[in-house]
Amino acid sequence: MRHATHFLTITTIIIAAVMLSACTANTGTESNAPAIATVGGAEFDTVVLASSQPVVVDFYADWCGPCKVQAPILASVGQEFADQVHTLKVDIDADPELAQRYGIESIPTLGLFVNGEVKSLEVGLHQAPQLRALYQSLLATP
After folding, report:
1. pLDDT in tens, 1-18
2. Is the dihedral of CA 66, 54, 45, 100 positive or negative?
3. Catalytic residues
4. Counting runs of H as helices and runs of E as strands, what totals does the chain give?
5. Which domain holds residue 32?
6. Distances (CA, A) of 18 to 8, 10, 21, 30, 106
7. What is the pTM of this model?
8. How many independent structural domains does the chain possess?
């Protein structure tokens, strides 16, 4: 019985690793994109709301599976638009006041900010083509 339990545990670990690999594969992004800076508190107001450029804010949590899948995709697409749009992250567990301020109830949620105002909140996991469209929509805002 003991060997059967170990076999099931090892099998479960292997299946979980394969599933995680499948979730992160074929995203169409480079895995070597730089990490996105995390902001919070008063820094948020200075960096996001006072920005002269549009800002994409990724509201996330470390325990969130879809957030982990989206992070490298967002980093890659954010790098493509780095000269025109800032991309930042807010950890909702470390900064629940910001999540409450913007009504974040589900993660991942992307906050699209222009001239210090929320243009839209986009809930859910976004693939690279969807993210590019969101970034382009920010650039089209007068």
Report:
1. 555 444 444 443 433 333
2. negative
3. 64, 67
4. 5, 5
5. 2-139
6. 15, 12, 5, 20, 26
7. 0.76
8. 1
